[in-house]
Amino acid sequence: MQTLDTTGAPLLEAPAAAQFAGRFDAVVDTIGRALVGKPDAIRLSLICLLSEGHLLLEDVPGTGKTTLAKALAATIHGTTSRIQFTPDLLPSDVTGVTIFDQSVGAFEFHPGPIFASIVLADEINRASPKTQSALLEVMEESAVTVDGVTRPVGAPFMVIGTQNPIEQAGTYRLPEAQLDRFLLRTGIGHPDTDAALAILGAVGTRASRAQVEPMLTTEDVGDLVDQASRVYVDPSILRYITGIVEATRTATGVGLGVSQRGAIALLRTAKTLAASRGRHYVIPDDVKALAEPALAHRISVLPEAEFNGLTAADVVAAVLRDVPPPRSSA
């Protein structure tokens, strides 16, 4: 007899979790041919996709942010688009525009690049706040409203935003409301010595090496999303997540802690991480592993604390030390 959750839906079983992990690892290996030596960043991006979220890649130039985004998009048998954000980009350049067609005597909607399965928003912080706000509705509702008509963008749908945190000239800081729309934030970092040598050795064949073959249909992605959502979560894990989130709101040096959306993000990604590791249940280590990428970008550090060197990552690390994880009943 299959076990059901509190809503009556069947929970993921051990054999299905093992199959999930096998498919997950195969996709990670494929993307790893394009982005050498960065399996952790690849796994996080895939966890974000299968948790039905959006990913913010924040790192210095030349670390492979765009390469990762394009490689992840290439693994899906869906549509992909790339929006190069610039100061003169308009909201209609993202969402699309309604134009009067004289041949038929009616207005016709021309969809923008946001209507794709995977959307790469490159250098997202270079666009004006007005253009950045064009993403708020679609990232939350998976739909775009133009001229009073709401149009769904379909599923799967994922926005991968990239930004350079070092160069500030000509950029606009992402508002907290938009940062909260990103399920995870991560960086890539420079490759280690072995990976750097492998990249240099393949420079002559870089174009062919970077090609990634599609491995998942949109239906496959939907099935994996459904399986991840059915991973079992013990009530003690829910209390642990709640304790972590509440602790960020009262931590020293914090002006704004994590919202309930952040708690939901941590729960959803922990379930996907558990499935990717071949488990049909979440353990505290899953929560700990994703606490920083899921929560740090939702924390606003007070200016005086930031001046003294405190970062959002430091806050998350301190909270994980202070909030005790649940103990096994075994």
What's this model, at a glance?
With 330 residues, this protein is of the alpha/beta class. Helices cover 45% and strands 15% of the residues.
Can you give a write-up of this model?
With 330 residues, the chain is α/β, with parallel strands linked by helices. The protein has 2 domains: 34-202, Rossmann fold, CATH 3.40.50; 230-323, Magnesium chelatase subunit I, C-Terminal domain (Helicase, Ruva Protein, domain 3), CATH 1.10.8.80. The protein is built from 15 helices and 11 strands. It has helices at 14-31, 39-50, 65-74, 91-95, 129-132, 134-141, 176-179, 193-201, 206-209, 218-229, 235-250, 260-276, 284-295, 303-307, 312-322, and strands at residues 55-58, 80-84, 96-101, 106-111, 118-122, 143-146, 149-152, 158-163, 184-186, 254-256, 300-301. A 5-stranded parallel beta sheet has the order 2-5-8-1-9. A two-stranded antiparallel ribbon has the order 3-4. The longest helix has 18 residues, at 14-31. The mean pLDDT is 87.
Annotation keywords:
Helicase, Ruva Protein, domain 3; 330 residues; Rossmann fold; 2 domains; 5-stranded parallel sheet; alpha/beta
Give the number of domains: 2
What is the CATH H-level superfamily of the largest domain? P-loop containing nucleotide triphosphate hydrolases
- Number of distinct beta strands: 11
Query: What is the molecular shape?
Result: globular
The radius of gyration over CA amounts to: 21 Å
Report the CATH topology name of the largest domain. Rossmann fold
- The level 1 CATH classification of the largest domain is Alpha Beta
Helix/strand-derived class? Answer: alpha/beta
Please state roughly what percent of the residues sit in beta strands, choosing from under 5%, 5-15%, 15-25%, 25-35%, 35-45% or over 45%. Answer: 5-15%
